[in-house]
Amino acid sequence: METIGIILARGGSKRLPKKNIKMLKDKPMIYYTIHEALKSDLDHIIVSSDDENILAISRRIGADTIKRPPELARDDTPSYDALKHALFETESKMNKIYDTIVLLQPTSPFRRYTMINRSLRIDADAVVSVERCSFDKFVLNGAIFTLRREIFTQLKESSQYLIDDLIGLNLNIVALVTSRCIDIDTIDDFIEAEKMMIDEVD
Fold first, then answer.
1. Residue 12 to residues 20, 136, 149, Cα–Cα distance (Å)
2. Does residue 40 surpass a pLDDT of 70?
3. Fold topology of 3-201
């Protein structure tokens, strides 16, 4: 079974400019996702971006890269469209088909490779990471989204969020409970992540 981890990291970000390569502790934020993905059981790690600086940094860290066309890097571009482009371009380049796709957001720097491996071992159509916010309530945190390729290719139309596309397909979707997987989208999130980094060191 061939597995691929795809990191979507466009250059534009209005709420937190250049967030994907903003220095967190002493590393660009995308480093943490690539570093853990490379330690995982994934067979191939790809970063998709329209930004040459992000692509160059990603290659230095150890990931392969795909240049994303500008029309797939807008604020309103569905993640499905960008993911499909990265997958099909990589499959064409590598001359192989990947059985399992793992979407890894570069804005989740506390995701560990063990979480990725756990998602790969679950027998399901899709695995999504969630975080407990109370005894009986969980929320999606976006750290991990694992999907069988045959399910992915069934999607004909896309919305802004992949989970919305899958809900109506009557699939076996498993929630993977994680912790400390903050999704950094604003300056307040970034400040919180910096504090969490300090706590980890201490």
1. 9, 36, 28
2. yes
3. Spore Coat Polysaccharide Biosynthesis Protein SpsA; Chain A (3.90.550)
